[in-house]
Each structure stands twice: as structure tokens, then as C-alpha cells.
Specification:
The complex is a heterodimer of chains A (256) and B (349). Chain A is α/β, with parallel strands linked by helices and 256 residues long. Helix content of chain A is 40%, strand content 23%. Chain A contains ten helices and ten strands. Chain A has helices spanning 42-49, 72-78, 95-104, 111-115, 119-138, 154-167, 184-201, 212-218, 236-240, 243-250; strands at residues 4-13, 16-26, 31-35, 57-62, 65-66, 80-82, 172-176, 204-208, 221-226, 229-234. Chain A has a six-stranded mixed sheet with strand order 6-7-8-3-9-10, with helices on both faces. A four-stranded antiparallel sheet of chain A has the order 2-1-4-5, covered by helices on one side. In chain A, helix 3 packs across helix 5 (119-138), helix 3 (95-104) runs parallel beside helix 6 (154-167) and helix 5 (119-138) packs across helix 6 (154-167). Chain A is globular and about 75 Å long. Chain B has 349 residues and is mostly helical. Chain B has a two-stranded antiparallel sheet with strand order 1-2. In chain B, helix 2 (32-57) runs parallel beside helix 9 and helix 2 (32-57) runs antiparallel to helix 12 (216-242). The chains are: A alpha/beta (256), B mainly alpha (349). At the A-B interface, helix 2, helix 3, helix 4, helix 5 and helix 6 of A face helix 9, helix 10, helix 11 and helix 12 of B.
Chain lengths: 256, 349
């Protein structure tokens, strides 16, 4: 059974068709990329899967259960975590608190139990702190755990966002331009990190990225969107040589 | 860290004990005037700290505390008045049935005030949290007015514009400061728990909060309902301090005062709310000398009634210019910081 299956997804905003008849099957453990020129509808696809938009048409199934139109927090709880294109950390909170919040949706204590610090909550809080520290070690941020999240340099903020997403205990990770704004060595580190996390946490990864070198290296399959329509899909090698993709990115080849 | 924790607990217990000793001293040897101000301080601490939970911690700018305080005040007053007193007060229309015969002890009436207000807050939360930002402020402001208008017109429950008179003066330093301590304890513990962290997450970035699985709607409701509970208790204490309540007491001006307190103290800081509540309540009295004629040596100023409010406004303006995030910003008092500053034991974290 596939982890995520999207069938005939269409998303319209008034008269604008942002995504048209999008189909996707993600098998367990895959890393699949979504590319396309600016405004192609990539982030709209993400937002619809993650529950920020209610799809105009089509079905989205996660591990067999329909999730289309559910609220974002319920989709996260079901096991889909995401990061954002423009980093969205909780600015005034410390690095470790940012990650601890990810565990909050799984705790069983009620607010009364948490406020009065009953034994169950104490255990859960210890689990949250330890879990957050483990994830911070995983992404190499354990030495800045007590610092304010916005004081971190850009590349570290990106990794913190990934750690926060992992704290929610996902099966599927949606990464929206994880390498944006990174230099080549940071990008290389990120690549290794994603591969390692996939193995350790049994993840399936679906990502949007503009850095072609990164996408070609990490993805097993790629889908290409242009004006909301899927124009190509296949292995990195196939995509690189697809004339429609080249046309979408570089424009039509004019015959002299 | 562990030894610090033990030390901090001891210091907290010691601090509370010191406060009790000071209250005992004030209770036995101070004038009625001082005691009245201290009671007011405690009640405004309760109101400000609980208002800060929804406005500061959760970041949902709302303007309804006057409604909550009114509901709490009426509930508890109606419960402590005896049937005979109610019969004498309700001269236009008699009080409706169950209320006309019920009398409960003071503490029961306070808890009932909290629960009834929390229930109203809960119901009110359903519609109001469908909007956010400026719209939330407007809708909650509307609710505040609605409650006041209802209090004015339900003659057989609230006695309308005549209000309730002759409420027993049950509120003393022990009740008011006791509930202030409970409120501060409960809300600060809540803010430090993961529920509080989730509320802060809602404040800083609602979309990201949803992305980490936080049900933003229910966390807003939780903050709002908890806030309502303590506003209600505060209202009950207020009613039994001033002994006469009428709808005119619960206008937007009350909300406005509380808003000044939490903004001046620092939105999101419980410590700030406490400091500002004391400063505003006590300061309003301390500045009274400004209304009297003054002789500055070279110039004589005749007494201008209201002069203190002018000075008070100027102080607020200065505060907003030089400390835009309030007295405390979003920081909180901590024994670790205090001990670190004083250079006593423990290592800085």
C-alpha cells in the first residue's frame, strides 16, 4: 500500500486553476521531488496535502485513509509533517522549546494535569526534553539548544525546522525548498542529513526544490509542474532529457 | 540545575510566607484606606494576570474582561445575598425563582462565579475565535457591551439599572491575596507547561503551530476559558469589596484599565502584569497629592482636580516611548536570574 496517494487533485482560487488534475503515488521510503518554474503550483500542492487548503476536486489518501479537507493539525497528527518555504520558527522561543512543541500534540496529559504537574505529565515532560535533545543532536544543534531560535544562522534555522517537524512523529515529511539560501557545502550536509533521517526514522520524503543539482542527486523520482499541470515525471535522468521540461524552464526552441 | 531547583522551591515558599507575614502586619495595624488599596491591588492582579493569558501569552487581542468581571460579580453577589435582602432590593420586579431562595457561603459563590463565567467564556469562544486580529477585538468588544446591556435590562435577575446593594463585605486581605496567589500560581504553571508553550506558538505563528499538530482553536478556547474563570472570581471579590454593583461599573473603561496594565507590564509577562497592576492601582492613589495646591518655592500652583490623571497619562506616554515592550517585555521573574545578579550560589544557566 502506498504511503500517500493523490488522485485528480484540482485546486482553484476563483477563476485561477493553481493545480490541475495532479496525481501522485508515494511508496514507503521513497524520496520524490516536485519541481517547476516559479508559480507552477508546487507550494499549492503541498498546502493542499498538509491541510491548509480544501481541494476543489480530487482525493488525497494517507496510508489508505482519505485526508482531503481535514484540518492541518489533524493531518500532522495523522503523520504528515512539513517545513515551510520561508522559515517559520517560533521566534521568541528557544531552540529546544521549538522542538518540544512538536511533541505536544502527542501528550496524553490534560491541561489540568500539566498545570499541576501530575506524575503522568512529569514523565511526558521528561520524554519531551529528552526527545527534543535527541533530535537536536541528530541535526547537529545540541550546543545551541538554549539559544533563541532566531539568533541562529540561516542554515541552522532550516535544520531546526526539520527537527521540529520530526518531533511530531511523522511517516511522511514534506520539505518546501529545504536547500534555499544554502551554500554548496551546507547543501551537501543537508543531503546527507535527509538520507540519514530517512533511514533512521523510516520516512518517506516529498520535497520541492529549485537547486537542480540537489534534486537530481537526492530524488529517486521527480515530477515537473508547469502552470498547475504535470508536464513530466520520471527518474532524474529522464527528466533532464525531457524536451518539455527544458521548454518549460528555458522557453521554446526557436527554429531559425 | 537540580540543587537550584530545590533552592528555588524553598525561595518561593519563603517568599509566599513573607507575603503572608506582611499581610498579617497590614491587616492588624494599617488604616482602612491602606487595606482597601491592598485589596484593590490583589483583585487587579487577578484580573490582569488572567487577561494577559489570552491577550499576551496566546496573542489574541480581545476586549471582553468587563463582561467576564460583570458576570462573576453578579453571580457571586446573587448567591451571597439572603432571600430577604433580595426581596427588599428587587422592588420593580421580584427576583426569579431559584435565585430568590438560594444563599451560599462566600467561597462557594466565588467558585460558582468562576465556573459560570468560564461557561459563558466557553460559549462565547465558539463564535469569536472564527475571526482573528482586529476583528476579534471588535467582536469581543461587542460582547462586553452586550453583557452590560443585558445586565441593564433583565430586571428580574440583575435588578436592572438599580443594581445590587447591601452585598456583605466579605472580601478581606486573606481572600483577595489568597486568590491572587492561587491565580498567579495556576496561570504561571500553565504557561510553563507544554500547553503554555503551545499557546505561545499560536501567538508567534499560527500556521506553523497548526503544522506541528497544535489545534489552535482549542488552545485559544482553553486560554480564553481559563481567563474567564479567574476574571469571574475576581469579579466576585470585587462585588464583595465595594458592596454595591450596577451595570455602569462594568463599562469598557474597566477593560481599558486592564489593557493599560498588561501593556505597561509587558504583553505575555505574568511578572509584568503583577508589577503594573500594583503600580497602576497604588500609583493612582499615590499621585493624589498632585490634585492639591502645591508650593514649589518660586511658583504657587492652585489645586487642579484631575491633575494626577494628566501626569499619569504622561508617565504612560513616556513608558511607551522608552519601553515599548512594557516594563518586563516577555521576560519573567526567576530566582536564578535574581540570585545570579546578587552573586549568590548556583551557576548561571
Amino acid at each position: 500500500m502506498s504511503v500517500l496517494s493523490v488522485e485528480h487533485l484540482t485546486m482553484k482560487f476563483g477563476g485561477l486553476v493553481a493545480v490541475n488534475d495532479f496525481n501522485l503515488e508515494l511508496e514507503k521510503g521513497e524520496i520524490v521531488g516536485l519541481i517547476g518554474p516559479n508559480g507552477a503550483g508546487k507550494t499549492t500542492v503541498f498546502n493542499t496535502i498538509a491541510g491548509y487548503y480544501v481541494p476543489t476536486e480530487g482525493t488525497i489518501r494517507f496510508q489508505g485513509n482519505p485526508i482531503g479537507g481535514r484540518k492541518a493539525n489533524r493531518i500532522t497528527k495523522a503523520g504528515i509533517a512539513r517545513t515551510f518555504q520561508n522559515i517559520r520558527l517560533f521566534s521568541e522561543l528557544s531552540v529546544i522549546e521549538n522542538v518540544m512543541i512538536g511533541f505536544h500534540c502527542r501528550i496524553r496529559s490534560t491541561f489540568i494535569g500539566a498545570t499541576l504537574r501530575l506524575p503522568l505529565y512529569r514523565r511526558e515532560e521528561r520524554m519531551m526534553v529528552e526527545g527534543a535533545m535527541k533530535l537536536l543532536r541528530e541535526v547537529g544543534l545540541e550546543d545551541v539548544a538554549r539559544e533563541k531560535s532566531t539568533s541562529l544562522p540561516y542554515g541552522k534555522q532550516r535544520r531546526l525546522e526539520i527537527a521540529r517537524a520530526l518531533a511530531t512523529g511523522p511517516r511522511l515529511l514534506l520539505l518546501d525548498e529545504p536547500a534555499a539560501g544554502m551554500n554548496p557545502s551546507e547543501t551537501q550536509e543537508l543531503l546527507q542529513l535527509i538520507l540519514r533521517l530517512r533511514k533512521d526514522y523510516d520516512l518517506t520524503v516529498f520535497l520541492i526544490e529549485h537547486d537542480m543539482k540537489f534534486v537530481m542527486e537526492i530524488c529517486e523520482r521527480i515530477k515537473v509542474l508547469d502552470y498547475g499541470t504535470t508536464i513530466a515525471e520520471g527518474t532524474p535522468h529522464q527528466i533532464q532529457n525531457d524536451p518539455r521540461v527544458i521548454e518549460a524552464y528555458l522557453g521554446e526552441v526557436q527554429s531559425a | 540545575m537540580d540543587s537550584n531547583h530545590r533552592r528555588n522551591q524553598l525561595l518561593s515558599v519563603g517568599g509566599t510566607a513573607l507575603l503572608i507575614v506582611l499581610l498579617y502586619a497590614a491587616d492588624t495595624s494599617s488604616s482602612d484606606y491602606t487595606i482597601r488599596i491592598l485589596n484593590n491591588c490583589a483583585i487587579f492582579i487577578i484580573l490582569a494576570v488572567s487577561y494577559n493569558l489570552i491577550n499576551g501569552v496566546t496573542g489574541q487581542f480581545s476586549l471582553e474582561p468587563n463582561a467576564f468581571v460583570a458576570i462573576g460579580a453578579y453571580t457571586s453577589a446573587l448567591l451571597t445575598l439572603t432571600p430577604l435582602e433580595k426581596e427588599m432590593s428587587f422592588i420593580i420586579e421580584p427576583c426569579i425563582w431559584p435565585l430568590s431562595v438560594i444563599t451560599t457561603p462566600f467561597v462557594v459563590s466565588l467558585l460558582a462565579a468562576g465556573l459560570v463565567t468560564a461557561f459563558f467564556g466557553f460559549l462565547m469562544g465558539f463564535p469569536v475565535f472564527r475571526v482573528r486580529g482586529d476583528y476579534l477585538a471588535i467582536v469581543t468588544l461587542g460582547f462586553g457591551e452586550v453583557v452590560r446591556v443585558i445586565a441593564n435590562n433583565t430586571q428580574s435577575i440583575t435588578n436592572g439599572p438599580l443594581g445590587l446593594k447591601g452585598i456583605a463585605e466579605h472580601t478581606n486581605l486573606w481572600w483577595s491575596w489568597g486568590f491572587a496567589i492561587v491565580t498567579v500560581f495556576f496561570i504561571s504553571r500553565m504557561v510553563r507547561s507544554s500547553y503554555g508553550m503551545a499557546m505561545k506558538a499560536v501567538k508567534y505563528d499560527e500556521a506553523a503551530a497548526e503544522a506541528v499538530g497544535i489545534n489552535t482553536y482549542w488552545h485559544k478556547m482553553l486560554a480564553f476559558t481559563t481567563s474567564a474563570f479567574f476574571e469571574g472570581v475576581g469579579g466576585g471579590l470585587l462585588a464583595h469589596l465595594i458592596t454595591t454593583i450596577s451595570p455602569t461599573l462594568f463599562t469598557f473603561f474597566l477593560t481599558f484599565n486592564l489593557l493599560i496594565i498588561i501593556v505597561a507590564g509587558g504583553l505575555g509577562s505574568i511578572t509584568g502584569s503583577i508589577i503594573a497592576a500594583v503600580l497602576v492601582t497604588w500609583g493612582g492613589e499615590a499621585l493624589r497629592f498632585l490634585d492639591e495646591p502645591m508650593n514649589l518655592g518660586f511658583v504657587e500652583i492652585p489645586g487642579i482636580p484631575g491633575m494626577r490623571m494628566v501626569i499619569f497619562s504622561c508617565i504612560l506616554i513616556l513608558l511607551m516611548i522608552f519601553a515599548r515592550h512594557g516594563i518586563m517585555g516577555t521576560r519573567e521573574f526567576s530566582w536564578n536570574v535574581l540570585c545570579g545578579k546578587l552573586g549568590i550560589g548556583g551557576r548561571p544557566r
